[in-house]
Design goal:
about 350 residues, alpha+beta, 12 helices
């Protein structure tokens, strides 16, 4: 066991979360004496490392990897998650998509053909959390830059990963395809820090979600109740406000939007001079626009009711909740025979 690595991993947890993390890790016997007297986190971590040394069971790379997996599950927003879509369905999904243990063996068998590695899989609710460290030199070396985190929802054609080194990426995706039973993996131009929100948006892309009639009725009843309480108040812009609210409800729904910190639009078009700089007419014109915030989708949803934007929104904004991507190319629509632009 490398005491320094263990001490570093334990030290990353917030002190109030440390006990829960150890319970999930389940690699050291929890003794109340470890936490007696409180004290600084460093002192508690030192006692935990000592307890691991004395218990007699080896804490190897797989156990350390499991502890790192627990950390990244608890603080999943500390990294960027990228969405991949699997296509080319080949076989019926079997138990390896449900059981963490069987999935780990099946994926490990495929990875074995490409490189040495350490692999850990844990199941949390309906998702499998995967920790993978590629070993390119020694089986005893802890290499953080070679670690990949993944989240997979069984029986779905999506997986969400942390950053992968270019030299390993193709092999990792190929091993996943062979394990799950597809022939192709494609990046969805979708990423974010909230992995559950990224997963929700990925599913919406191929399973359009609409506001339920019940949700619309309840929202309408609330609106009527508010108006009945203020019968003496005359709102001159009531019709316009109602239109904005109805449009926003139909487009974004009543529920809070999935969390996305960034939405990026890239414009590829031809320059139109409009009487200025005619020599540049039809020259290639490119521009990137980036929206950033705690939740960009909620911000877009609020623009109409707040009067910041006039509904209906352009299609490239209106479609954001359902297209399953936050890196979007806006290309000029060309005339027939010149090829079609895309949005």
């Amino acid at each position: 066991m490398d005491d320094n690595i263990l001490r570093k991993l334990l030290g990353r947890f917030k002190f109030p979360d440390l006990r829960q993390a150890l319970e999930e890790w389940n690699c050291v016997a929890l003794d109340e004496e470890l936490f007696v007297g409180g004290g600084q986190k460093k002192a508690v971590v030192d006692r935990l490392v000592r307890a691991c040394q004395l218990q007699g069971e080896e804490i190897g790379l797989e156990e350390l990897g499991t502890l790192d997996l627990v950390y990244n599950k608890m603080y999943s927003r500390s990294r960027i998650w990228s969405a991949y879509h699997f296509t080319g369905y080949k076989k019926k999904l079997d138990d390896c998509t449900v059981s963490a243990e069987v999935f780990q063996r099946a994926l490990g068998k495929q990875l074995f053909f490409y490189f040495r590695h350490v692999l850990c899989v844990r199941q949390y609710k309906d998702a499998l959390w995967v920790w993978l460290m590629v070993q390119d030199k020694s089986s005893t070396v802890w290499t953080p830059s070679n670690i990949v985190h993944m989240v997979y929802y069984p029986a779905s054609p999506y997986i969400f990963t942390s950053t992968m080194k270019a030299e390993y990426k193709e092999y990792i995706l190929q091993a996943l395809l062979l394990t799950i039973g597809y022939s192709k993996a494609q990046f969805m131009d979708l990423s974010g820090r909230d992995v559950e929100s990224v997963a929700e948006l990925a599913k919406r892309r191929h399973n359009q979600q609409h506001v339920s009639p019940e949700s619309q009725r309840s929202r309408k009843r609330r609106k009527q109740d508010e108006e009945s309480e203020n019968e003496d108040v005359i709102q001159e812009d009531a019709e316009d406000r109602q239109w904005r609210e109805d449009y926003t409800r139909e487009t974004f729904g009543d529920e809070p939007q999935p969390t996305l910190e960034n939405v990026v639009y890239k414009l590829h078009a031809s320059f139109k001079h409009g009487g200025v700089a005619p020599s540049m007419d039809d020259q290639p014109f490119q521009m990137t626009v980036k929206f950033s915030g705690r939740n960009v989708l909620e911000g877009m949803k609020a623009m109409g009711p707040a009067g910041i934007a006039e509904p209906p929104l352009p299609s490239y904004l209106e479609s954001i909740p359902n297209i399953g991507k936050n890196f979007i190319l806006l290309a000029e629509k060309r005339k027939p025979g010149d090829g079609d632009g895309k949005e």
